[in-house]
Structure formats: C-alpha cells, structure tokens
Design a protein that fits this description.
single chain; alpha/beta; 2 domains; five-stranded mixed β-sheet; two-stranded antiparallel ribbon; 11 helices
Length: 286
C-alpha cells in the first residue's frame, strides 16, 4: 500500500476494492507480526485474551467478497468486561437468534452492495467479528469500535415495531456497519501513515457529533465517517422509488446540519498526510 492508496482510502468513498484489499493485507501482516494471529483465526476474544480464549461464532451466509469467517461473535463475561462501553449492552445467543440478527446483517450487506460497492468492499474485507448490541430506545442506535480490535465492530440491532418497519431496521443496521467499518479503515491506515507529526502536541477542535471538543484526529475520523455515510445516503436519495429513500433524505439533512457546525481546525500538529486527509474531507462542504 502506497501513499496514493492511503489517500484514496481516507477520502469519502473514493477508493477501489483493490486498494481495500491492499490495506487488508497490510493489516493482516501487522496482526500476524504483533500478535501472532493469522486472519482465519481472528477473533475479539483471541486478541484480548490470548490463545486460551475460543470464541462462539455464528457465521453469516456467504455473499460477494465476504471472508469465510464473517459473522456474529459471542464472547464470555471476561471479554464482555474488556469491551464494555457506557449504554451499550451486548446481545446474548438467545437474543441474537430471537431477533434473527444474522439474517438482518445479511440483508444490510445486500443493501450496501447494491448501492455502494466501494463501501461494501470495506465492510466485507475489514470486518471479521460483529458484536450485536441492544437499542437503548427505538430511535437511538449505538455503535463503536476499539483501536486494539482491528476487525471487530459493535453495532445496535434495532427492533422492528409499529414505528420501525423492517426496511428501516435494515437501513439503520447498514449505517452502523458502514460507520464502524470506515473507522476501522482509517485506523488501519494510521498505522502506516500517521495523521499527526511524531511528538506534536495535538490540538482540539469542536466535534458536532460528540457535541464537545475532541482531539483533532478524532474530529478527522468523524469527518471521514459522516462523509462516507452522506455519500451512501445520497446514492439512495437519488433513487426516489427506493424503499428507504425517505429515511435517506432524513439522514442527509441531519448529517448536513452537523457539518454546518464544523469550526476552523488548526493543523500545526498534523503530518503532511494528515493535512491532505483533512482537506479532502472538508472539500465537499466548502
């Protein structure tokens, strides 16, 4: 993976599937060298707890470009303690089965592939373990990823109901998968092309998504993630007959209003690569 690949992969949905594959191979080599884990043996449990911790894995049905070990990982209580985040509750096996989570993931992946093959390439190549979360309330989705887990995502699975039709469940799950996958992508790039200069004092900037000031690298992550989501929803909104076109229009408006709150960002601590990434992710809004 060279600088041109890295810049494309850090620009809003501007990459190719081949560039994603190069990043995946570089990340796999790093995982093998640092932790001794080969790609087919990756799991959240193994990264955090070592070889003695085996995972319970519920595979999803194969789909275009999916790794053979793509699916839902269920973890033991000690691992749950390591990955716990405020307001996030991992679903257990019975809940995963009752909510038919794997089928929802499969349908979300079909939606992503049909709309944005480039983004689908990222999800398919970089995600190995999905940890489903319960929704704290019908209209709020929680998702996160952790820097030490390069191929794991934690995403809420909305519950279908009178106010949440099935196609909105799939759309929201698709957004969660995209959101965390592109975080993984940018984090993976940072191992090889840092956003900040070595030893530099990192500035803080206002994050409209967190409603607080955050380190500049976190703000760049937010810009990149929500640019990618805006592109994805824009593709759908341009098809008025699409089943989730109304949902897409709402998300486009919400994301656009957040971008209006982005303030001037000082760049003294950024590397030359970081400055280019920032400029590319601000460019479509200025």
């Amino acid at each position: 993976m060279n600088t041109d690949d890295a810049l494309a992969l850090a620009s809003p949905a501007a990459w190719t599937s081949l560039q994603v594959q190069r990043l995946m191979l570089a990340m796999d080599e790093r995982l093998r060298n640092h932790l001794g884990i080969v790609p087919e043996r990756y799991s959240t449990a193994r990264v955090l707890m070592g070889a003695q911790e085996e995972r319970a894995f519920l595979p999803c049905e194969p789909h275009s470009g999916w790794p053979p070990r793509f699916g839902v990982e269920l973890v033991s209580p000690p691992v749950q303690e390591r990955v716990a985040q405020p307001g996030a509750i991992l679903l257990n096996r019975d809940e995963v089965e009752a909510l038919d989570v794997r089928r929802s993931i499969e349908l979300a992946m079909v939606l992503i592939h049909s709309i944005a093959p480039r983004i689908h390439a990222t999800v398919a190549a970089l995600v190995r373990s999905i940890h489903p979360l319960s929704c704290p309330c019908p209209e709020v989705d929680v998702s996160y990823s952790l820097p030490e887990l390069p191929h794991s995502v934690f995403v809420a699975v909305p519950c279908e109901g009178p106010k949440v039709p099935r196609h909105h469940v799939i759309a929201r799950l698709a957004e969660g998968l995209i959101h965390e996958s592109v975080h993984l992508q940018l984090s993976g790039i940072e191992h090889f092309f840092p956003l900040t200069r070595r030893g530099a004092q990192e500035e803080y900037a206002y994050s409209p998504w967190r409603r607080e000031h955050r380190p500049i690298t976190g703000v760049i992550h937010g810009l990149f993630v929500f640019n990618c989501l805006w592109v994805f929803w824009r593709y759908i909104a341009d098809q008025p007959a699409h089943q989730v076109a109304d949902f897409a229009a709402v998300r486009i408006g919400e994301i656009g209003r957040d971008f209006e709150q982005v303030e001037f960002i000082a760049t003294d601590s950024l590397s030359a690569f970081g400055v280019q990434v920032l400029e590319r992710n601000l460019g479509i809004w200025h």
